[in-house]
TrEMBL record:
The lineage of its organism: Bacteria, Pseudomonadati, Myxococcota, Myxococcia, Myxococcales. The chain crosses the membrane at residues 28-47, 94-116, 128-147, 167-187. This is histidine kinase. Its EC number is 2.7.13.3. Residues 223-433 form the Histidine kinase domain.
Amino acid sequence: MTPSPPAATPLLEPDSRARLNLEWLLRLRWGLLLGQTLVIGAAAYGLELGLPLPVLGALLGLEGLTNLAVRAWLSRDLPVTEGTLGKLMLWDTLVLTGLLALSGGTHNPFTTLYLVNVALATVLLPARWMWGLFGFTLMAFGSLFVLQDVELPAGLSRPDHAELMRLHINGMWVAFAVAAGFIVYFIQRVTRALGAREQELAQARALHARREKVASLATLAAGAAHELSTPLSTIAVVAKEVERALATAGTSESVREDLRLIRQQVDRCRDVLVQMSADAGQTTGEPFHPVPLGRLVEDMLAELHGAERVRVQLPTEAREWRVHGPPRALARVLRGLVKNALQASQTPRTVELRVQARGAGALLEVQDAGTGMAAEVLSRAGEPFFTTKPPGEGMGLGLFLARTLVEQLGGSLELRSTPGQGTTASLALPVTEPHAAPELAS
């Protein structure tokens, strides 16, 4: 997903977007405070300009107190709005005006810092606040022409005109570099942070959509099973009675064979409804429990046809790692992956199930010995009702339901395949050790 500026980010909730913007604005304000302190110190002690240091120091201290107040506001988890950002940026403009008015006014090359606030307002604030801050900045800059002629109280002084011109000429390049650097750094970091938040939210919405599909499948399967059970039973009974009547009447065997085919298809319809109900319903309704990986693998193999062709690599220490989830549904997920691998691998070729640590979790890899999948097939694997299996061997729900459950548990399911080299299904699950939090080496 391509990152976009904060103010144009539709995927973030308003409070979340404003809070994220305020956090980055606070970081920038600390940077500006440090930069202003260094510049004033260099001008006063390096260039020996006559500056009203007590008042400038008071303004800098006021900025620091404002930053601390904003941090306390964020730590208390109070609501943050775009108006909060706008008011804070208006205050920054006012403080900057005071600093500039006391250190050269319009002759101060660091008047370019006004552009930092204007640029940030364009990114962070809605149109009415942006234009309001723009107008306020113009008035603040214009006020410097008036304030530079105002006499300071006794004991305070400004640099003379010659010193101001020398400062202006020598400092223009430095001022431009500082202003441009702050703008580029802040906008780039905020855009990148919001891009990552967008991606997280998009993934959460995709997961929510998949869960809704699972719930819809369960409802559809239950309703279909309920509504179709009676007519299917009626068809089966009537077909049986007609077959008996035709047998008594001596009708040809081909006609009776057709009736038996009708009954077989009715049974097939029942099996499909039962499987849909089981696949969609058991995954969503089973309670969560800590499941040791060793037991999970054993339960998977216990009901698997062709288990003798599965080579399991499960380290001894990994057998007691626990996955918190629905036990039967987890076993069904793993069994489905291994079953797919067995169907893709011709007898007597074997399938490998490898369990290893990955970070703070476990990685279960199922590798078949089949012919692999083409890129266009791999890209669609996991879509509901998409399958390459022959009719009667699958409905295309296994991978979809498996990925939905695994992501609900905080894990992931990935498929890697190369034509002619087989397919590997990688199942990553968060785990805990029996008596302590995991510290597993990858």
